[in-house]
Amino acid sequence: MSNQNPVFIPGPTNIPDRLRLAMQVQTQDHRAPDFVETFAPVLEDTKKVFGTKEGKIITFPASGTGGWEASVTNTLSPGDSVLVARYGMFSHRWIDLCQRHGLDVRIIECPWGSGAPADKFAEALAADKEHKIKAVLVTHNETATGVRSDIGAVRKAMDASDHPAMLFVDCVSSLASMPFEFDGWGVDIAVSGSQKGFMLATGMAILCVSPKALAAMETAQLPRTFFDFRDMMNANASGGFPYTPPLQLIYGMRESLKMLFEEGLDNVYARHFRLAEGVRKATAAWGLELVAQSPDLYSDTVSAIYVPEGFDSNALTDHAFNAYGVSFGIGLGEMNGKAFRIGHLGSLTDVMVLSGLATIEMAMADLDYPITLGSGVAAAQEYFRSGSATPMQSAA
User: Rounded to whole angstroms, how far apart are CA atoms 260 and 266?
Assistant: First the structure.
């Protein structure tokens, strides 16, 4: 019966029954006239979640990694320079993808647990007098470390340097869970996916693309076929797809957007902050430390938590699954064996989060962690009992 338990990994997330039912549709003709009635509103409504009026929504049957590849291949040419900071596993993987495509990747190494270094970006861009850097790539929410970076600060640094580089943002584990301001932050391509904040199955890469990035297609020389923006946009314009679409996910996406708008995006963001803060209260009560180096970096979708010296985080997550049938995130990259992760995004409530905290607490007690059984749950309970709290109220 363990499959009845919620998962506490940072994605794929729990799928509400409402969305599972929405995806259980019979095969339909995606070239029939009525398909556009389903698909066109999905593209338009998704703009609201990205926070854009000018951006173009482009989707592909893929995960977020496919979105990364699409963003790079449609706008850049072999040998182009891109500027990236490495501060977690997913920024590292984006670097690897760019290197495999023959790009000149200029890497700013940062400690894991830190965020995007706007000041170092500014220095690198100011030094690039010939404007060889064509794009700055930033991971908004580093899922491996539980760190959310300030994209607005990165944009200000780029503007202060008077540099024409495009700004690409990975928002796979933040979109539809934390505020995102595509237009306000001057983002050129934002990459997300269906399996996290949208609470759907994996299989749809969702991008928002600025007019500036679309113009870059005219000179981009990297090869692309499956991920060609132009092919997709031309087909979408008449309500279709250049190849077979993920029909069930499109129906699910339509229902997911309805759910998000019914709750209200501001309420969705406040709920995620509340759940995350409950986890942070529990972590402090256990006497453990978050990987994120400071409160301004705390993610509202995933918390990465260091285990005490001499303990193995992989043994902890394995025990939680084997003994109690509940999945938590393992430590990735430099965090392997050192930290576990609690995903608190998507379809979750206070009560569900409390069940996850109680489970990982039992697993820690079983493995003789230096914690007091019940302390983390009690701390989260007290916080949840205190009533609704928004980030602004919490900071007051």
Answer: 10
